Amino acid sequence: MTNSESALDKTYGSLLARRERHNRLRRLTLRDAGIVDFSSNGYLSLSGHPDIQSRYISLLQSSSSQGGFALGSCGSRLLDGNTVLAETLESGIAAFHGAPAALLFNSGFEANTGLFGCAPQPGDVVVHDELVHASVHDGMRLSRARTLPFAHNCVKGADVPTGSTLQSLGEVLEGLRRGKDGDEVARGAKNIFIAVEAVYSMDGDVAPLRSIVDCVESHLPRKNGYIIVDEAHSTGWLGEQGRGLVSQLGLEDRVWARVHTFGKAMGCAGAAVLCSPTTRSYLINYARSLIYTTAMGFPMLAAIQTVYDYLGTGNGAPLFKSLMSLMEETHQLLAALSEKHSPPPQLFRVNAAPPESPIIPLFSGRARSLATHCQRRGYMVRPIVAPTVPEGTDRVRLCLHAANTIAEVRELCLAIEEWLQSQLDGDSATGFEEMPQEPTVTRAKIGEAPISISSKL
């Protein structure tokens, strides 16, 4: 190859240019030092918590004094990468979440692709919420099963919003019972997997899991309905000591498998599939994302162990309380802002109902503009645009953390109001345009905003 651009690079360049013209080009960025984090998934602020760091370092030092440890495993679990700590950790994770067994994966993505890629057998069906994570979709593509979506968080037909082209979960399951393979479904001869998330990462809403479980058991009484719950965005903060939604609702014995990940509220990395011992053994034999990858080394296993020990002894209680209070206060401030200005919903909208999680979407047809303005004011938020979210639902994804303060939230809301006022002033003269526009304001000091939202600020 010469240094000149190849034909393939030209093809890639054309595709990238097209994406940039539509304001959809993704780029890697670095966070400025000192910027206030309203973007990461570390909802409990554990990754930088002094007590967690101290406990982790103590564990490393203790292990080093007892003969040292390897930085990496240097092999897959099936070859030379398995360790006593890995198996002990799996047993502890299973017990913490009230599951029969657990199997570690290097990430939630690998857990989902491994699980969904091999669990369904030929002829089986995976029925999934339309908004399940990309990793679930990739796993389903690797599987030998037929896939059917249902309308997001809709269990009954009456739940489906007007205009949706999808059916509810109950309608999809009933359709399977009446379809060409209906006899096999009714007899329990065909497996139906149901894929949902506990908390959805883009909207922050919680699945109606109890209703989902009841619906599946009602339509599939032969117990051939296997529910898989991705607890990625609920692990660590939701439920007693952060055990997740399934445990909070007491559904451990009615959910077939759970995926808990450790790179969000837990503040480290990795994931575990909670399942039966037989399913665990099956995954060890057939999950390609486990078989053909290097296992986690001691430092990462020790980090996971440290966080579980911390949460399991009740140390997270003050963090949970702080996070819940911040969620409530933040929504009140945003609602006051919307009520004061009554912006057109395509410009700015927040959900009327209080948030169910630390994830609060700020819907806007100018999400990039809003995010850039907030970043210039010293607050890290990210625009989320199509195709990551459906067309017409671009938003700035606001993530709250236990370490955020109400003062920081107030100042962020002031920055949002400043942007909103500038957009409304401009639109009164030129008319609303849905394409994101770069803000014209210059960078100000954090908290500098001449516009007040309400007396609540």
TrEMBL record:
SUPFAM superfamilies: PLP-dependent transferases (SSF53383). Gene3D superfamilies: Aspartate Aminotransferase, domain 1 (3.90.1150.10), Type I PLP-dependent aspartate aminotransferase-like (Major domain) (3.40.640.10). Keywords: Pyridoxal phosphate, Transferase. Signal peptide: none annotated. Residues 35-416 form the Aminotransferase class I/classII large domain. Coiled coil: none annotated. InterPro entries: Aminotrans_II_pyridoxalP_BS, Aminotransferase_I/II_large, AON_synthase_class-II, PyrdxlP-dep_Trfase, PyrdxlP-dep_Trfase_major, PyrdxlP-dep_Trfase_small. It comes from the Eukaryota. Its cofactor is pyridoxal 5'-phosphate. Pfam families: Aminotran_1_2. PANTHER family: 8-AMINO-7-OXONONANOATE SYNTHASE (PTHR13693:SF77), CLASS II AMINOTRANSFERASE/8-AMINO-7-OXONONANOATE SYNTHASE (PTHR13693). Belongs to the class-II pyridoxal-phosphate-dependent aminotransferase family. BioF subfamily. This is Aminotransferase class I/classII large domain-containing protein. It comes from Epichloe bromicola. The lineage of its organism: Eukaryota, Fungi, Dikarya, Ascomycota, Pezizomycotina. The gene is g7134.
